[in-house]
Write a structure and sequence with these properties.
The complex is a heterotrimer of chains A (231), B (52) and C (233).
Chain A lengths: L1 H28 L1 H21 L3 H33 L2 H7 L4 H30 L7 H25 L5 H12 L1 H15 L4 H30 L2
Helix pairs in contact in A: 1-5, 2-3, 2-5, 3-5, 3-6, 3-7, 3-8, 5-6, 5-9, 6-7, 6-8, 6-9, 8-9
Chain B lengths: L7 H43 L2
Chain C lengths: L6 H24 L12 H29 L2 H33 L7 H21 L4 H32 L19 H43 L1
Helix pairs in contact in C: 1-6, 2-3, 2-5, 2-6, 3-4, 3-5, 3-6, 4-5
Chain lengths: 231, 52, 233
Amino acid sequence: MRGTVSKASGFLKVVFAIVWKDLAAEWRSRELISGMLVFALLVIFIFNFALELDTQARSTVTSGVLWATFTFAGTLGLNRSMAVEKDRGCLDGLLLAPVDRTAIYFGKTLANFIFMLLVAVIVLPLYSIFYNQNLFIPGLLLVIFLGSLGYVAVGTILASMAVQARTRDILLPILLFPVIIPVLVAAVKASSGFLQGSAFADIQSWLSLLVAYDVIFVAVSFMVFDFVVEE
Amino acid sequence: MPEAADTINYMVAGYVVIFGVMLTYLVSLVARWRRAHRDKAMLKELADRDEP
Amino acid sequence: MIKEQPKLLKTLNIITMVMMLIAIGLVFLYAPMEAVMGPVQKVFYFHVSSTWTGALGFLVSAIAGGFYLRTKKQTWDIISVAGVEIGLVFMLIGIVSGSIWARPIWNTWWTWDPRLTTTTIMELIYLAYFMLRRGIEEPERRARFGAVYSIVGFLSVPLTFLSIRIFRTIHPVIIGSSDPTASGAFDMTGKMTQTFVFSLITYSVLFATLLWHRTRLGKLSAEIEEAKLRINE
């Protein structure tokens, strides 16, 4: 009994160590966050001019623009997070340590997840201003939570692979986007639903889809991560 | 009774695609197979030469 | 030493060819003309069969990928690659033939309906599969990553299909179509059903034959790669 308890706490220690390491490193340089901030602003402006929206149309595309931003900014975060490990050889160092591999995966995923939520924290007030719409609705926050989770579960695995390939930068979006489409569709529809105050019954199927995706892919990524990092 | 639509051109186009792509793939398989055999024979020759 | 095709494979070749000829005969001589769509409906039989074969290829690839991760035997990786390659070819045939079938009926080359959209996304996933493999030098890692992605990719497909299906029950419009509820359905008579089922079986046999051939090619290529490495030492 004591053995299992200490094993579990050891696992968690590793997880938090990795999360803390990533967050602390980012806090020192703040490159990633500032990059994502500027990126989010640029996306708003590009969409504004590219789509020539009038005030009416703008309210219907808010959730679309929001999730397009998350999708693209997310790849920045994922790439950065794994590339840093690879380039500085941190990943190899981590792997030499006598820790459960899945703890490493869990830690990286959690760190990436927190980054995505940070992106949301930056993006939501900005978009609220530019789209003149209060985006701080609990339902929307729930969708962002669920959507980011699925995105990051798959994204961390794929980023770990992509970063080891020659074509690393372009490869991650190519690998990720087709697989992430259920999240995108469900998140956009659910977000719209909450923003437009639709009945919960209408939104329910989208939320269920998000939850199903999250459950399946967190589980699959857990099982598969070992194979991605073994040497 | 209404006339069936005159869609014979589309049918032809459809079958051209179906069989055209299939045949192209088969041809590519055969070509790759032949090349692999040539490579293997050449390598065998090299290996035999290296061991007198 | 050039290996001869095993007897079973040779037999399979002949069976496949015969079945294909019979299937073509059934489609053009046995199955009746569809009343509304006319001749283009005949594309349906091989269109669905091709898509089916494409999906089979991806399924085999994901399963073989799983076995590779479990056993680390190279043969499984070779089968996985073969599955993706055949899957890509036949899925492409399915998509394009489907588009050609749709054009005269719905007056559009493309519809965002769940099946067409999902199959195209699948195609993109497996193109990405090859791009991933191409970017990795080391054979063992290439095989491992390929296996992981083929599994992840395949698992995403049902959810993708579901998401688009739910999406479409709310937005049934086929852009540019005159009939917003069009679904390409038609009444299948008995003869059509028989032709359809036979086509599916023929294509399944074709798939097995091609998979075998492609796997043999893969094994030969692997042998050559290995021999080249040995010579370079």
